[in-house]
Design goal:
Chain B: It comes from Cellulomonas avistercoris. The complex is a heterodimer. Chain A is of the alpha/beta class. Chain A has 22 helices and 23 strands. In chain A, the strands form four sheets. In chain A, strands 6-7-8-3-9-10-12-11 form an eight-stranded mixed sheet, sandwiched between helices. The chains are: A alpha/beta, B mainly alpha.
Chain lengths: ~675, ~300
């Protein structure tokens, strides 16, 4: 991206000059050796990191990958000397960062190092920026002067930095806020920047921009970057080297290519295998790492991963594997902590293919179960300056859902996809247009955050029982609750659990059980997997598909992730600023996208081995949608008339598919739809 | 990344549509202290348990006061103005020879039990009003909360004095006078809490699951406000003790011979140079009772905060 090039193109500052005069210390920027970290929570001390050996070279980008509970965030905090005092961290082993031994350094020294030699980018810039200070002032705090702050803000691609300098964080979009964070991180020319899930909260197209910016940052400034993420695909976009963590241990490390192309640890293989991509086999259930067996892990002398490992042998439960260099060259970077690493090369890492699903019986093409026409939904809101404004969430959506059919609705934040779902579910009544569909308990919804959609003080039993019609005898309720728990793959013991005692995946299964204990006609899913680890998400997606097939439920599934949409949707509808811009069979939309926006969405999906081509700009504000085709300001192929004309941006069929059957039609709202 | 839209005029969240949630509280009324509960240590737990235990002990003493009192509190039983420990009177006797310890014990009973009843009734009324207002929203909410605010706008101590004076002295009238000015405070806090819970997805999820309105209120909302209600009430009961004692001090409590901490203090005040224990002992008991219930309120809050 050209914005990153400007990091150097700008006039050199005195600091740049000093950098060339006094070369930095040689050797790694961070050295972790036999690092153990234990923290105390509620008076109980537990070891979070076990013997971490890691060197981060100058100018190197290291991607640290792991699921929740892997200890990756604790490691990032340790690198920054930010382990919370309240949890009484105990550090053993070597922890040297930027020439400072963090385990013995005084708080003043650590602070000084953070100010001058370290930088950090957190996941959520809204909570990590001070809401009461201008963003520019916050950058200047670290950069030293207003001029330097503005230079940095321009360098990270913030348009009109002089004007944005005096903005508060809430006045900026998520992408711009993250750029402000990055400007703060690189201020002072740090030796090491730690980025903890910096793109997880961003839209796909913005994520691609930020990834490009972070990678460019290293090229321009020469600083090292530790990039922490749960997604191997994202790490592969930027990292030179990948470190895979499991339960506080490094289980595999190597160059990005080595880890992705010849993973040797079964956990890495599992992460790669359960990762959704745009070319997974849709006809089979997704393979997923098995869940951890109850009571396993933590204690024991063996491999922490043994209970989930499909290659585990007897020795794995007794011998803890050490991180061992693979291959003959002892200087090779590729190492794995697995007793069987040497055997598990090649085909062992091939994805597991489960038996294909039986073909879906051609559903009865009767009347659509949901039929929406010209849905418009406008809210009266306050804009970022507190003025009254009208937010057009839906701007004319026409949409049919056939019985037993599954439609995935894809869009970025602000596209209106969740509003459409809420209108269809009867949760939002302020709309115009016509809507016919089931009402009451015939339409059920599964929410994004199962934790907050289950009442925290009610047991699973009570949640399931209350869904059954009044007057149902208690033993019948119990019987049905047990049956549905079995169907969603939960043990009967879960009946007595409170939501807080369940894992994220289990909670989402309970939510699905509640929605389907009495099978509805339509199941609405609002990003039910976006907060889950990849392996758990895969099992939940399988479950949605299974329930839908077995119970003949029609599904509307909202997601921001095209790979997820492709798995759950017979059809995919792409939304942009309150309108459907493209809709068609999943394979048509993914393989042959016709709308420029869909093409960019497909291109922005992070895939190993492919550099995402970021789409410039951010989604326009729904408070003030552009005239004509709402996408034209970002559209690479826009014609002059796109800005003015309304004619021609309505959905219309393309291609040679029969157009009589709505489920086969491929429709695009673009004046240039005719060209391919 | 959902794009669920929350309309700005939709009044979602705690205390939306109201002035500042806490508002300027009258000086004699501390208001709910909402500072962080801090870290939980073994010493802290022990201290909290001790404080709560002490308050329970006070309650037991209050209930058993007639049995524990060594003498009849309303009959002269000795020489007037006997100093403490003289003649078997641990805390001496008052102007007309009544046993101070017995009067204080029975006075404590009246003050503490009445404070508990006022707090409980105020909390119940406030919870019902707050729950209905918070769940119904719209005009029901508006009417109930504007009414509440009218009560809150009146200086509660003055209203209590006025009500007590109008109804005449007596236990029941004091109770009425204080309760009338006390419930709105709870109603507003509960209503804010209910609005907060209503904005959580689990309420919407319950509605989608076909759960009826009453059951949503009873099982999905009410249990969520209980901790706040208990914390607010336990932090507030000390204030009620003070207000009840103040009314009694002003002569608006029970009529003359009945032992009451406030009135005993005010009537004994003239003797302070002569026989300091007559006004000072009941006054100190009020102070200690109020202090202890405040500290124990903090302790209850800590324990509930760390339980979650």
């Amino acid at each position: 991206m050209d914005v990153t090039a400007s990091l150097l193109a700008e006039a050199p500052t005195p600091r740049d000059a000093s950098r060339t005069d006094a070369p930095r210390a040689v050797g790694p920027v961070a050295r972790l050796q036999g690092l153990d970290v234990s923290l105390e929570r509620n008076g109980v001390r537990s070891q979070i990191l076990h013997g971490i050996d890691l060197e981060i070279g100058r100018g190197e980008i290291v991607g640290v990958v792991g699921e929740s509970g892997s200890g990756k965030s604790v490691m990032s905090m340790a690198l920054l000397g930010l382990l919370p005092e309240s949890s009484r961290p105990r550090i053993d082993g070597t922890l040297e960062v930027a020439g400072l031994d963090l385990s013995t350094a005084s708080p003043q020294e650590v602070r000084e190092a953070r100010r001058t030699r370290l930088g950090v980018v957190f996941q959520d810039p809204m909570t990590s920026l001070n809401p009461t200070m201008h963003v520019g002032t916050q950058v200047a705090e670290k950069a030293g002067s207003r001029e330097e702050a503005i230079r940095l803000m321009r360098a990270v691609g913030i348009p009109q930095p002089e004007r944005r300098y005096g903005c508060y964080p809430h006045e900026l979009s998520g992408g711009l806020r993250q750029r402000v964070m990055i400007a703060m991180a690189v201020a002072g020319d740090p030796e090491l920047v730690v980025a903890d899930e910096p793109t997880t909260a961003l839209d796909v197209t913005v994520q691609a921009q930020v990834l490009a910016l972070l990678a460019g940052m290293r090229d321009q400034l020469g600083c090292s970057l530790v990039f922490i993420t749960h997604d191997l695909g994202v790490a592969a976009q930027v990292a030179d080297r990948i470190v895979v963590m499991y339960k506080g241990r490094i289980v595999e490390t190597g160059t990005t290519r080595e880890v992705l192309e010849s993973p040797r640890h079964p956990y890495t293989m599992g992460l790669l295998g359960s990762r959704l991509s745009l070319d997974c086999d849709r006809t089979r259930p997704l393979w997923a790492l098995p869940a951890e067996a109850p009571g396993a892990g933590g204690s024991g002398s063996g491999c922490a991963f043994a209970s989930r490992c499909r290659f585990a042998v007897e020795a794995c439960t007794t011998t803890a594997p050490a991180l061992t260099v693979l291959g003959d060259d002892p200087r090779s970077a590729h190492a794995a902590a697995c007793l069987r690493a040497a055997e598990l090369a090649g085909e062992a890492s091939a994805p597991v293919l489960l038996p294909p699903l039986p073909p879906l019986a051609a559903p009865d093409r009767g009347a659509p179960v949901v039929q929406a026409a010209d849905l418009e939904c406008t809210f009266s809101v306050r804009d970022e300056r507190g003025r009254r404004a009208r937010l057009a969430a839906l701007r004319g959506v026409t949409f049919d859902l056939q019985p037993g059919e599954s439609v995935a609705i894809v869009g970025e934040s602000g596209s209106g996809k969740s509003t459409l779902l809420r209108v269809a579910g009867g949760l939002e009544r302020r709309f115009t247009g016509s809507l016919r569909g089931p009402r009451g308990t015939d339409v059920q919804m599964v929410f994004q955050d199962a934790g907050s959609s289950l009442t925290p003080w009610l047991t699973v039993r009570e949640v399931l029982h209350e869904r059954l019609p009044g007057g149902t005898p208690r033993d019948v309720r119990e019987e049905k609750a047990l049956a549905i728990l079995d169907r969603v793959g939960l043990p009967a013991a879960v009946l007595d659990a409170l939501p807080g005692e369940l894992s994220g995946g289990q909670r989402q299964r309970v939510a699905l059980a509640r929605a389907t204990i009495v099978p509805p006609q339509v199941l609405l899913c609002d990003e039910p997997t976006s907060a889950l680890d990849v392996s758990v998400a895969a099992t939940v997606l399988n479950l949605v598909n299974e329930l839908r097939r077995d119970l003949g439920i029609a599904v509307m599934f909202v997601t921001h992730d095209l790979a997820v949409a492709r798995i759950v949707g017979d059809r995919i509808a792409v939304m942009y600023l309150g309108r459907i811009v493209e809709v068609g069979r999943a394979e048509d939309v993914i393989a042959h996208p016709r709308h420029p926006y869909t093409r960019n969405l497909v291109a922005a999906v992070p895939q190993p081995g492919r550099t995402a081509e970021p789409l410039a700009g951010e989604p326009a504000s729904a408070l003030d949608p552009p005239t004509g085709c709402a996408f034209h300001p970002r559209c690479p192929v826009a014609l002059p008339e796109c800005a003015s004309t309304v004619v021609g941006v309505q959905l219309a069929a393309v291609g040679d598919r029969p157009t009589s059957d709505v489920t086969l039609r491929h429709e695009v709202a673009c004046v240039r739809r005719g060209e391919s | 990344m959902t794009d669920v839209l929350v309309p700005a005029d939709g009044r979602v969240g705690a205390g939306a549509g109201l002035p500042a949630p806490a508002g300027p509280a009258p000086r004699w009324r501390g208001g709910a202290r909402r500072r962080s509960a801090g870290t939980d240590t073994t010493a802290r737990r022990a201290l909290d348990r001790t404080l709560i235990g002490l308050l329970l002990l006070v309650t037991v003493v209050a209930v058993l006061a007639p049995v524990l009192a060594p003498y009849d509190p309303v009959q002269p039983v000795g020489v007037p103005k006997l100093a403490p420990f003289a003649d078997g009177h641990v805390l001496g006797t008052d102007q007309i020879g009544r046993d101070t310890l017995s009067r204080v014990l029975v006075g404590l009973r009246t003050s503490w039990l009445l404070a508990l009843v006022v707090t409980t009734v105020g909390l119940l009324v406030g919870t019902v009003v707050g729950l209905v207002a918070g769940m119904a929203g719209g005009w029901v909410d508006a009417v109930l909360m504007r009414t509440t605010e009218v009560f809150l706008a009146l200086p509660s101590m003055l209203v209590a004095v006025a009500v007590a004076a109008a109804l005449g002295p007596g236990l029941a009238n004091t109770f009425l006078a204080v309760t009338v000015v006390w419930w709105p405070y709870y109603a507003r806090i509960i209503r804010g809490e209910v609005r907060g819970i209503m904005a959580r997805p689990h309420v919407e999820a319950a509605r989608m699951a076909g759960v009826g309105r009453l059951r949503v209120m009873r099982r999905h909302v009410l249990p969520g406000v209980v901790p706040t209600a208990v914390i607010t009430a336990s932090l507030d009961v000390g204030n009620v003790v003070m207000v009840l004692a103040s009314l009694s001090f002003l002569g608006l409590g029970q009529p003359a011979p009945a032992p009451e901490l406030g009135s005993d203090t005010s009537r004994g005040l003239v003797e302070i140079l002569d026989a300091w224990w007559i006004p000072l002992v009941p006054g100190l008991v009020v102070m200690l009772l109020s202090l202890l219930s405040n500290l124990a309120g903090d302790a209850v809050r800590n324990r509930l905060a760390h339980r979650r």
